[in-house]
Design a protein that fits this description.
alpha/beta; 3 domains; globular; binds zinc ion
Amino acid sequence: MGAAETLLPRIFAGRVFAGRAFAEIARRNQGKSRMSRRSTGLMKAALSALHYTGADGMLSPLTSGVGVIFTLHHVRPETPGDFQPNRILSITPEFLESVIKFVVERGFEVLSLDDVEQRLSEGEFDRPFACFTFDDGYRDNKQYAYPIFHRYGLPFAIYVPTDFPEGRGDLWWLKLEKVVRALNTIEVKMHGTWTSFECRTAQQKDAAFDRIYWWLRGLPEKEAREVVADLCRLHGIDVEHLCRELVMNWDEIRDLASDPLVTIGAHTRRHYALAKLSASEARQEIEESVRRLETELARPCRHFSFPYGDLGSAGPREFELVRELGLKTAVTTCKGLIRARHTKSLTSLPRLSLNGEFQKERYIKVMLTGAPFAIWNAAQRLTLRPQASADAHT
Ligand SMILES: [Zn+2]
């Protein structure tokens, strides 16, 4: 048999395997952006199958985009311990550097957000581009990520919720992690009934975090935050300085912003899911954060990132609001590469998360072909009602 005859069935098998795995994940998660441990394992297997069978390469001419915007949160050395529900939000400096090298070696041009906007507006797609964006303004971005970008002379952006540098940010998802880590049993009044969660083992803690987190995501923002604040108070868990410890203050942000490689974008004031607010509240959240950044940094703010960024947190109303307020680009956490058609939707750009669960070069290589998104979307269409796949929760 010739090479083609042996290769094609293998590629087909890789694609079928990935399709089945994605359908199974879709069934299990019902559109939730955080995957359980088992689903994460299945996703890794599917991406590996695409890589090792060559199915990604076979698909790439049909599916690849004109560029990619990466989502990052924390960059720091790995923290030990089995219970790490927010692991998806953290990658190591070594992995970041390997991704930078990978995209540069493959001919991607690393662009600032201003350049992305220009390229999309002008429709110039001779070379694929990559753009690195960080959400929330964590101090580790300055400590671990900035020196890498500086060394390579490459641009990146940080989106800051403007309450955070004041130390007033409510990082409730990290507070919840502290609560679940500290306790062996948690009692929460869910839907009017007291529900008790055993959380002695890492597995029980994962399950408890998952249930409570997704229940909270469905509540109005203020209510959800009160539940977590009450748990902290009740159990004496100290979270008073969490925001100051983790997020850069204005002096640190100004210092970073003085480097022309760094763009600072807005990420609302209080990090609320804008779609849950009234139109005027949503507008205020966006506008106040933009004005505040412009005052603090003495320069125009042209770029925005939607908190949480999934379709339940930002939709057509928010995309339009951002456009009306004069922002040039806005990013979501809906998964995908940038395609030529996005020239018409600059305020709802998809991103690709550099996710702590997927710190292998082969996963990035496969995702950059666009193949997983094509198969993922097909699997979603077959399994569930159509829905966009959002990624990390912030
Ligand atoms: Zn965020």
